[in-house]
Amino acid sequence: MKVWLPYDSVVQARQRLGEITDGIDIDVLAHDKVPASGADQVEWIALPNYTANKVVDQMKGLVFPKLGWIQLGSAGFEHIIDLIPRHVGLCNAAGVHDAGTSELAIGLALCALRSLDRYAVDRLTETFAPIYDDSLADKRILIVGYGRIGSAIERRLAGFEVASITRVAHHPRTDPAVHAVTDLPDLVGQADVIFLTVPGSEETRNLINANLLSRMADRTLIVNVGRGLLLDMDALLAEGGRIRAAVDVTDPEPLPKSHPLWAADFVTWSPHVGGRCRAYEPRYDALIRAQLSRLVQGEPPLNIVRSPQ
Fold first, then answer.
1. Which helix (H) or strand (E) holds 140?
2. I want to staple 235 with a disulfide (CB 3.0 to 4.6 A). Which of 21, 59, 140, 210 is the partner?
3. 42-46 vs 25-28, strand pairing mode
């Protein structure tokens, strides 16, 4: 059974994956390049994370008569699902980025609340200007998008003595209590810090819009580690700093030069690095290992986004 894996060499693949079930023939997408041969035999492909589109673009024009599944290195799939033929199944990397992304979400919140980004700038001018500032302690937390990453954020908040945590998801449920997205107009005004981890789609575009921003209390902090389109940046900028934000994602992305967000001192920013950390590699390795084992045993893969049609 031939597979293509996102490693620099077969030796590296075997080192990273450990014991691989007999019967797996490995080729690699070294330096994000499609192997020169083997497309007619490959049955399963695991794509790299940030350069998946580049690899898929190279696959155009090749014939893959045996290809059954493609594995993404990202939890998000909206950027690539329409590029994958319908007869090929698609799996995402749900769970792989939970640690890195939730960790960054907490970091962004702390950075914004404690003005750490401002102190970093002050250092460049040798300015000593301490601020009597906010903290996570005693804050009312709203997590919008209570899936894997949302629950990982909640676990990491456990030691910060927050006042309360309210959860929102597309599907409301109990144990723990999770509100429906339609409850947001009644919930946003009761939150001090709002974490966004919702997937991006046309349905969720501008989920946090001018109406919801107007319902928020002064100095509410929005932390967006989902997708940039979730937060209406024009509406946020129009608030003039009454509502603060700490964002790892933007719309558009990357931000063009001279975009007003660059100059907004009430926005803390990072360049889409939620999963770009060393916690990613061992977790993706573990997922690839599990998927290969299931493949050989004839079991369905994990994290199915779309089955072959």
1. strand 140-144
2. 210
3. unpaired
Element (H, E) at 102: helix 98-113
Query: β-strand 69-71 against 89-91: which pairing, if any?
Result: parallel
The domain ranges of the chain are 2-96+277-306, 98-269
Task: Look at the domain 2-96+277-306 and name its fold.
Answer: Rossmann fold (3.40.50)
- For residue 157, CA distances in Å to 13, 95, 271 come to 35, 18, 23
Helices (H), 139-203: 148-157, 184-187
**Cα 218–chain centre separation:** 28
Is the backbone of residue 32 left (phi > 0), alpha (psi -120 to 50) or beta? left
pTM of the prediction? 0.91
Q: Do domains 2-96+277-306 and 98-269 have the same CATH topology?
A: yes
292 touches 21 (CB < 8 A):
yes
Q: For residue range 1-35, what is the model confidence (pLDDT) as tens digits?
A: 999 999 999 999 999 998 776 789 999 999 999 99
Return the number of other C-beta atoms located less than 10 Å from residue 215's C-beta: 15
Pick the CATH number of 98-269 from 3.40.50.720, 3.40.1350.10, 3.30.590.10, 3.40.190.10: 3.40.50.720
Strand partners, 194: 142, 222
